[in-house]
Amino acid sequence: MTNTKDGRPQSVALDRRKEDRVLRERLRRYKQAFLLGQVITSEVDRDRLFEVIIHQTNEVMESMRSTVFLYDDQTDQLWSLVGVGLKKREIRIPSDYGVAGWVFQHRVPVTVNDAYNDPRFYAEVDKKSGFRTRNIMCVPLINWAGDCIGALQSLNKNVGVFTDDDRELLVFISNYVTIALENMRFFEALRDLNKAKERAMNHLSHELKTPLALIGAIFDRFARELKEGDDSKNARMIHRGRRNVKRLAELQEKIDDILSLKAFEERDKICQLVESAADFVEELREEDDGRYTEALARIRERINSVYHAEEARAGQTLLHELLHDLSDEAESAMQGRNLEIVRDFEEGPTVSTDEKILRKIFAGLLRNAIENTPEDGKIEVSLKGSDHEIRIDVRDYGVGISPQNQRLVFHGFFHTQDTMHYSSKRPYRFNAGGAGSDLLRTKVFAERFGFSVGFDSTRCRFIPDDADQCPGKISKCRFIKTRADCFSSGGTTFSVRFPSNPQILTKSTSLP
């Protein structure tokens, strides 16, 4: 027997090298599978996800085709998307048909290396897809709750037949696929919920307009006809009614702002298609007799009519003057409250924008701060500019926002108080019960016009839960002795940052 230089039999060395090659190959494939997991778990679009799973699984499994079957509990079927791009189509089979159905029902992997001689094979899928199946490796997709949501299969290995190592690898891949599919499902549910919320807001805004105008007109007429010396009780009732109509009208205006700006996102996508068509027409200019150009112009007009909203009017706005005005207005609106608005405004920073937009943003932030600050407290408003950005901070020393609520602040129509303690009070009162529409509108403005908004909050350490209530006046708090104790216990800062670019917020709101 021939020995190697280190004295080992040559056959042993050959076996060792063979084992090393096998291990390196397995390591390579599992590294591919790990990278596959990183790719597919970041994708939530359904069509794109199916394509990525199929392509990546084929690469790792070295197969000609892969298929993802998902269970539809409404029809008791397994369904899948086959093909790519515009040629993609959906196929459906009963949940107990074929190899995929058998794996789904039994929840165990299976290897079939001679498809047409296996009684579990369902040839109709080949007929529908135009593909000839030779061998199959199929594994169940089982989620975190232990439910089988479908099956993943690879078809026609490029070289040879599927092995036990292939099965182990596909099971490994299936864990990532299941996570990606569950992420997709949760994302779609959230997207549907957001669409339903927007539809409800749209309906509410539309339904509010006419009755609010009518009720407001009635109260105005009553106020005019109420003669001096008439019953003061009636005067108080009319005043209260007019105030609440105004409050509802303001809410309706905020909803309109949110919905009109959201609509631009859809319009911009459509505009991209229109511009692509315009480029195509430009290439065909010699053949164009005017009909294409006229058609595109009409399409633009139609999009503008569907997504019409008030245009932003650009104009240089001195921020320190604007913030002084808004602070004065806030101090006037919160009459009767013992609060201090501390101003620290650097003179000079400007942005080029419609001043009405800025007023809505900062009036809302100021009101939010005031309504979250107890009596004897303070709000700080600062304006600072640098070479890189202009920053405005609105800071209150109120109870702060609990960690579980912080992620919901910009979602809209959200209040930080416990539901049992929630009630709508007069604007600018402590815990007035704002619905959060100001913050949602500010977030939508930021997304549309290219500035940023964020916040930092610390919940008061003496009342850490939402169910805990602040007495509404610092001198009545049993946990502290001085105002400074309250100021150091909690609070929230909302920050708005504009790039140091005079063109910020001049983004066009009309079609190009």
Outline of the structure:
This protein is of the alpha+beta class and 512 residues long.
Description:
Helix content is 48%, strand content 17%. Helix 2 (46-61) runs antiparallel to helix 5 (164-225) and helix 5 (164-225) crosses helix 6. A hairpin with a 3-residue loop joins strand 10 (378-385) and strand 11 (389-396). It folds into two domains: 10-189, Beta-Lactamase (2-Layer Sandwich), CATH 3.30.450; 316-499, Histidine kinase-like ATPase, C-terminal domain (Heat Shock Protein 90). With 512 residues, it is of the alpha+beta class.
Strand order of the largest sheet: 3-2-1-6-5-4
Radius of gyration: 33 Å
| Architecture per CATH nomenclature, i.e. the level-2 architecture of the largest domain | 2-Layer Sandwich
Write the H/E string, N to C: HHEEEHEHEEHHHEHEEHEEHHEHE
The proportion of strand residues reads 15-25%
Text of the CATH class of the largest domain:
Alpha Beta
Number of domains: 2
CATH superfamily membership of the largest domain? Histidine kinase-like ATPase, C-terminal domain
Give the helix/strand layout.
Blueprint: H1 10-40, H2 46-61, E1 63-72, E2 77-82, E3 89-94, H3 98-106, E4 110-112, H4 124-129, E5 136-142, E6 148-157, H5 164-225, H6 232-283, H7 291-306, E7 316-318, H8 319-333, E8 340-345, E9 350-352, H9 355-371, E10 378-385, E11 389-396, H10 403-406, H11 437-449, E12 452-458, H12 483-487, E13 491-499
Parallel strand pairs: 8-10
Antiparallel strand pairs: 1-2, 1-6, 2-3, 4-5, 5-6, 7-9, 10-11, 11-13, 12-13
